[in-house]
Amino acid sequence: MAINNGDFVLIDYTLKVKETGETVGTTDEKVAKESKLYRGEEHYEPFFVIIGEGWVPKGLDEALTTLDTGKSSTIELPPEKAYGTRDPKKVRLVPLRKFTADGVSPAPGLQLNIDGKPAQIRAVGAGRVQVDYNHPLAGRTLIYDVTVQKIIDVDEEKIRSLLHKRLSTVSPEKFRVAIDNGKLEVEMPEDAFYLEGLQVEKRTLTADITKYLPKIETISFIEIFKKPATPAPVEAKPVTEAQPPAAAATPATQSP
Fold first, then answer.
1. How far is residue 79's CA from residue 95's CA, in Å, rounded to a whole number?
2. Rounded CA gap, 157 and 160, in Å?
3. Domain containing 121 — which CATH number?
């Protein structure tokens, strides 16, 4: 089945830097452990992509449309098709006080967001910090071992995939999704009730769903709170009345 722009797909991949042979990303838990990339909080599962939306590097986005589902392929991307060439103008000096005011102790290699932009600390000097706003893989040739595992063509599955992208700690199967005449109802699982930033994510999800599934006109997010089960009463056990101890026998006193 041909893959086209706008298709929803699930891919597995392992990403290496050609110049060093270093593995820098993977959806395979075993590979992550072997490459010392494993992080317990990560979810190692097929990666969800909408083709042509720029969710992956440009060269990979283009290459995915040439692949066959279920067949592993190796794709080499030069910097121009990956994360671009390094731009010296994106390496800047930032006053140290900007970090200390935010309670941050800058150190070489630290990755963080500065004024909403991802950056990496290169060096720390007397009163100034060298900050690199280039992508960490800028200037590198990348090699992807990639397999398109599935093309998602059912609307309910597409919506679950969008939900899981934004609420990644919740299994997509736990969302109940119902579409009826342009109206979408999403019943949120209990796992999602207290996620930080949930209300913001709902607004983002609404934008995503209406963009990629334009026939959806209204969206209802439903949260059902159930009354806690009443614990069963503990059956009282009958109390046995204690019997007074038997009087000890007193030996007869012999008269002198």
1. 31
2. 5
3. 2.40.10.330
Give the DSSP letter of residue 96: H
Three-class DSSP category at 13: strand
Residue type present at position 107: A
The answer to whether residue 253 sits within a structural domain is: no
Contact 18, 137 (CB under 8 A): no
Tokens of 197: 């930033």
216: left (phi over 0), alpha (psi -120 to 50) or beta: beta
In degrees and rounded to multiples of 5, residue 3 shows phi and psi of -105, 130
Centre a 10 Å sphere on the Cβ of residue 88 and count the other Cβ atoms it contains: 7
Q: Tell me the pLDDT of the chain (256 aa) as tens digits.
A: 789 999 999 999 999 999 999 999 999 999 999 999 999 988 899 999 999 999 999 999 999 999 999 999 999 999 999 999 999 999 999 999 999 998 999 999 999 998 888 999 999 998 999 999 999 999 999 999 999 999 999 999 999 999 999 999 999 999 999 999 999 999 999 999 999 999 999 999 999 999 999 999 999 999 999 888 887 777 766 666 656 555 544 444 444 4
Rounded to whole angstroms, what are the CA distances from 213 to 64, 81, 205, 230? 21, 29, 11, 43
Please check whether residues 148 and 32 belong to one and the same domain: yes
Q: Which residues contact 174 (CB under 8 A, 6 or more apart)?
A: 189, 191, 192
Read off the amino acid at residue 78: P
- pTM for this predicted structure: 0.81
Residues 74 and 16 in one domain: yes
